[in-house]
Amino acid sequence: MRETIFALSSGGLPSGVAVIRLSGPDVRTALNDLVGFVPEPRKAVLRTMKAEDGTVLDRGLILFFEGPYSFTGEDCAELQLHGGVAVVKSVLEALGGRENFRAADAGEFTKRGFLNGKFDLTGAEALADLISAETEAQRRFALANGDERHRQLYAGWRRSLIHAQAMIAAELDFSDEEDVPGSVADAIWQELSALQSEIEEHAGGYRDAEIVRDGFRVVILGAPNAGKSSLMNALAKRDIAIVTEEAGTTRDILETALDIGGVKVILTDTAGIRENPGRIEAIGIDRAIARAGDADLILLLEDVTEPRSVPHPQGVRLLRIANKIDLLDERLVAEAYDLAISTVSGEGINELLVRIGDLTEGSKKRALDILPFRERHVGLLMEASRHIDRAFGQGAVGLELQAEELRLAAIALGRIAGEIDVEDLLDTIFSQFCIGK
Ligand SMILES: Nc1nc2c(ncn2[C@@H]2O[C@H](COP(=O)(O)OP(=O)(O)OP(=O)(O)O)[C@@H](O)[C@H]2O)c(=O)[nH]1
Ligand SMILES: [K+]
Ligand SMILES: [Mg+2]
């Protein structure tokens, strides 16, 4: 028999209100025991809750949701209690003492919802993203992704693949193998080729999804004392990094998250790059260069009064920035720089923020498009594309093999939204949720 699960679904205690959520076959009996009856579905009632021995636990709002019209698709209830540590503990203990009741695992409510067909797998993943969203772009992206739009897109592609398979099967049935005239094949192969391009283009959008979900990575690079840590603090508007006049102050990677125009930006301060560093500093320099190689943008900072160029990774977008312009008598900053700033006077800092914001604009706009938003999605899309490739590779003689490859491509697409055997994936996906969701 299926167990009834429960958890504190609201955040940390103490809080104004704490919400305990229950789901499963024994929710009704639990409510009966706690408050003496089962409330009408979706109508809040204020009642005193009592333990089995009659002790009063708390007075609060009770909501009952009758399956399948609930988040999990099962009978559910929410107990809205006073958000005190002892109050919540007493109710959780009372529930835990009941037969066939247990505390929910992380993501278990959502997993039950998925298994009961309340939403597809991309919908569940979007829900996880919504809960962890910190910026406006993350929130909007997650909300849009919860709309079954991926499932619909992939279902359309699967229909095309199944249609192509059917046409090939028809050809197998009705042609005598030697002289197949131009036949259905040409049109079908054109469509398949267009579909494959569409799949790959869609997969290519992952980079923008990553920027919106995980952040746009900006790394500050430069010689010692260029003012990198000062810039980090100026951009973050607080003292995160230690600043001193001593060259080699920063020795390790230092990271902070900013919200620039609604997009998460991960800003990294690094050790100054120079020849013949000390041992610890040398490790810091290696890390700086490695991190810069993975960045979306490098801010290459130079002290204008003492310009020193440093080696930097190639192939990463770069902004050359002149710092300490407050020390110049005349504002004669060489054209070699994209921007001139002073972390002391604040000059140019806003312009730099605007420049960074502009660079994320494209990804932010694309968050309204349907993009794959997990590596899992990209992996399955590329798998589908490879099967279509192999179908092409079979040549006309291998019609049966072609049809088989198309079937496998359709299966890969079906797995993204969880419409086809995903049992092996479920634990990985749902364990990323917090308890109570
Ligand atoms: N006048 C002036 N001084 C600055 C400016 N930016 C930084 N400084 C000074 O330059 C010195 C070095 O600044 P940091 O921010 O520590 O430089 P850094 O690049 O992080 O140095 P390392 O971590 O040692 O590589 C400090 O004394 C800062 O106060 C600026 O815009 N104008
Ligand atoms: K320094
Ligand atoms: Mg520093």
Automatic annotation (TrEMBL):
Positions with a binding annotation for (6S)-5-formyl-5,6,7,8-tetrahydrofolate: R21, E78, K118, K437
Binding, GTP: 225-230, 244-250, 269-272
Domain of life from the UniProt record: Bacteria
GO function terms (MF aspect): GTP binding; GTPase activity; metal ion binding
First-level EC class: hydrolase
Function: Exhibits a very high intrinsic GTPase hydrolysis rate. Involved in the addition of a carboxymethylaminomethyl (cmnm) group at the wobble position (U34) of certain tRNAs, forming tRNA-cmnm(5)s(2)U34.
The protein, known as: tRNA modification GTPase MnmE
Species in which this protein is naturally found: Nitratireductor indicus C115
